[in-house]
């Protein structure tokens, strides 16, 4: 639930900017917040903490995430990159994952850089099935939302790796997708309840939420209502 509430604080911060944080500073930060695949993590603050503290906690998260990307030092490949560049990127990735097992941003990084290796470094176009299997498993373990890529990987691997290994990957993928489906259903219930809470509060106190806050709530609800995971599960099961 804490993950779901993060964007509530982002919206509320706009209308409660203090002398420490100007609205311009907030909007500038927010415009760059989600670059490079960043996704905020739960932020534990005291119940009486204000949005200024939340803002700086979120800013610290983003700075830490940027430091991790710098440490990995894997750059977007050029069109005609040499094979050695992919080998080096693979080495850096595996080394980073092994040395940061408890990093809170590791799932996001695994999803982002597995896509880098499979698509941008064109690993999926090769016959290096062991590496393709490795990065497919990374997508699965990261609970990545790159479902189309995951399906392409499974189709590439079918018939090209051990049958039992493929069946295990396929079953694990379905299990993870079902977990994601359950999580999104829970989030949808939470958001709908939040809309109802706002309506009740308005009727009782005439306290009206900002338009941007309501718009963001409705956008998140629409996104969850358009959930296609059930179709993805069916497609994975029939590969």
Topology:
Blueprint (H helix, E strand, L loop, with lengths): L1 H13 L8 H11 L17 H22 L10 H17 L6 H15 L8 H13 L5 H11 L5 H43 L5 H15 L3 H9 L2
Helix pairs in contact: 1-3, 1-9, 4-5, 5-6, 6-7, 8-9, 8-10
Report on the architecture of this protein:
Helix 4 (83-99) packs antiparallel against helix 5 and helix 5 runs antiparallel to helix 6 (129-141). This protein has 3 domains: 1-72, no CATH class; 79-161, no CATH class; 180-239. The chain has helices at residues 2-14, 23-33, 51-72, 83-99, 106-120, 129-141, 147-157, 163-205, 211-225, 229-237. It is 71% helix and 0% strand. With 239 residues, the chain is an all-alpha fold. The protein is built from 10 helices and no strands.
Question: What's the quick description here?
Answer:
By secondary structure, this protein is mostly helical. 71% of the residues lie in helices and 0% in strands.
Oligomer: single chain
Return the domain count. 3
Percent of residues in helical segments? over 70%
Q: Report strand %.
A: under 5%
Shape: globular
Question: What attributes does this structure have?
Answer:
disordered N terminus; 239 residues; 3 domains; mainly alpha
